Amino acid sequence: MCGIVGAIAQRPVTEILLEGLSRLEYRGYDSAGLAIINADQHLQRERAVGKVVALKNKLKSKPLIGLLGIAHTRWATHGKPAERNAHPHVSNNRIAVVHNGIIENYEVLREELKAEGYQFESDTDTEVIVHLIEKAESQGMNLLEAVMSIKTRLRGAYALGVISNDEPDHLIIARHGSPLVIGLGLGENFIGSDIQALLPVTNRFIYLENGDTAQISRYEIALYDVTGESVERDIVQSNASMGSCELGEYRHFMHKEIFEQPQAIQATLDGRLEADAFVNCISGTTANGQTAQQVLKEVDEIQIIACGTSYHAGLIARYWIESMTDVPCNVEVASEYRYRRQPPKKNLLVITLSQSGETADTLAALEKVKQTGCLATLSICNVPESSLTRESDFTLMTLAGAEIGVASTKAFTTQLVALQILLGLLMQAKQADQAKIEHLITGLKQLPLLVEQVLDRDTAIETMAEDFIDKNNALFLGRGEQYPVAMEGALKLKEISYIHAEAYPAGELKHGPLALVDNEMPIITVAPNTVLLEKLKSNLEEVRSRGGVLYIFADKAAKIAKQDNIHIIEMPAIPESIAAIVYSVPLQLLSYYTAVFKGTDVDKPRNLAKSVTVE
Ligand code: G6P
C-alpha cells in the first residue's frame, strides 16, 4: 500500500510525479502529496485529502516548480486520512520523506524524539523517520550517511524516498520489505514503487534488494547493500506497455478487465500447450540446481499460500490437484500461515499465488517456508521481476497484462489457467493417464471462446443486478470446486458494492445459514453440469421451499425451470475441467453491475488497495 514516486531531472518534475502517482493510485488513494526543491533551494510541499486529482487541482492554482522531487499516494495505516497525515513528511522545513510500509517501533522513537524537542505534526509512524534523519544530519552527516545510520533504528518495513534542500543534486532511497525500483533516464533518473509509475519516462529499471540504499543523481546511481558496501545491480529492460493503463471505451477498469479475459487467458496459454502435452514453461532452478521437471517428479505434497482473490484460486486448484493426482494439497491464507508452526516436510512444493508479487503476508510466508525447509518454492505471478518471483526458486507467469481495478478479475482467471498448466506438468511428471492429460488440454483450448460466450450474457446479467440495489446481504452457494467460486463471487460483491455477502458450501445450508433465508436474502449459485449437480438442486429446493429468492447461473442440462423466485441465466455447455474458471465470470459481472447501480467507486472501493504491501 501507498505509492512512491521521485525524480531528479533537467526539467521540472512535478508533471512526472503527478502522472506517476496517478498510475500508482491502485496502491492507495485516501490522500496524496508532493515535495520539491525549487530553484532557490527551498523545500516546498503540497498535500491534499482524497485522490490524486485533488492534489492536481491544488497544484493548478499554486504550482510547484523544481528539478528534484518526491511524491506519495497514501493508504492510511497510522492516522486517519487527513492532510496533516499525508506524505511527504518534513523536518525542520528542510528534509522531506515519503514512506511505504510500517515502522513498528515508531511509538518508542516518537517519545525519544519528542523528549529531544522534535515537534510532531501527524499521527503517522513515518514522521519519526524524517526527524531521525534530520537529527543525524544536524550531527554532521550528509543525507546518505544520515539515512544509512538511521536504518538500524527502524523495525518493520519501508521503502523510502528522501530529499534535503542542502543537497539539491540527489535523492536518497532505501528499501527494507516494501518494493522500490529505480528508473533510468538520459540525464535524469526516477524512483517508483513499481515500474508502472515510471513507464511514461523510461523502460530501464534497477530493482532494489532488501537492505539496499542508493544515492540517485541525474547522471549517477550509487548503490549500497545491507552491509553498506558499494554494490552493482542488474539493469532490466522492460517490455511492459503503457497502453494497458488506458480506459479506452470502458467506464471502469474492472469492466474492461473482465472483458479482456479471453485475450488474457489466450496469452497465458500461448506456447504452453501441444496437442497431447503441456510444454514446460516454469522458469528457474532450486539452489542445488534441480529443474522444475525433477521437482515435480519428486514432490509428494503441495502447500499453496496466498491472500484474497489469489487464495480463492488456490482453493479451486486443490480440488483439481487432488482429483487428478495422488499428491495431497493444502491451501492457506498467508497471514495465518506465516505465524503457524509447521513441521518441515522434505518433499513439499510450496506454491505462492499473487497478482502483484508484492503482498507483504505472502512474501513473509515464503520467507518462513524457506527457513523451515521444503523441496522447492514456486510462484505464480502476474508481475515479472516482482519480489515474489525473485524470492522463489521457480516462476510460472500469468500473462494477464496490467490489472488496475482493485477487485481482481483477469488476474484471477489467468491464475486458474496457470494452475491447470502446472497440474498438467505435474501429471506428466507423475506419468498420469495420457487420456486425462489430453482431456485437460482439450478443455483449456476451448476456454477463451467459452469465456467470450459468457461475456455475451452481459446485458442479461446487468438486468439481474438491478434486483440487488436495495439488498444489504447476499448468500452465495456452490458445491465441490464451485464452492470457492462462490467464495470469490461473495468477495467481489462485498469489495465493490459494500453488500454483506457470504459463501457457503450448499451442503452446509441446513447447518445454519438456512435460518437467514427469507425473501430479502438473495441466494446466488452456480450450477454447472458436474457430478454434484443433482445434490446442488436438492439444496436449492431447500431454499425455495422456505421463500428464498434464487439467482442461478446454470448449465442447460441442469434443467432448472424458471419459476417464481428463481431467476436463471443459462450458460453454454462447459467441460467440467474448466467449469470453475468460466463460472467465475458471470459472478464478476453481477458484482460489477450491482456496484455501478449503487454508485460506488468501482475501481477504487473504499478502504481497500490493490497491492497490500503492509502486514
Ligand atoms: C488485495 C487486493 C485483492 C488481491 C489481494 C492479494 O486485497 O485488493 O484483489 O486478491 O490483495 O493480492 P495479490 O497481489 O497477492 O494477488
Short synopsis of the structure:
By secondary structure, the protein is of the alpha/beta class. The protein contains 18 helices and 25 strands. Helix content is 34%, strand content 22%.
Describe the protein's architecture and organization:
This protein has 615 residues and is of the alpha/beta class. It is 34% helix and 22% strand. The protein contains 18 helices and 25 strands. It has an eight-stranded antiparallel β-sheet, covered by helices on one side. Helix 4 packs across helix 5. It binds 6-O-phosphono-alpha-D-glucopyranose. 6-O-phosphono-alpha-D-glucopyranose (G6P) binds next to helix 9.
**Lateral arrangement of strands in the main beta sheet:** 3-2-4-1-10-9-11-14
Associated small molecules: 6-O-phosphono-alpha-D-glucopyranose
Average pLDDT over all residues = 94
* Discrete helix count: 18
- Poorly predicted ranges: none
Distance between the termini: 10 Å
Secondary structure class reads alpha/beta
The helical percent reads 25-40%
The total beta strand count reads 25
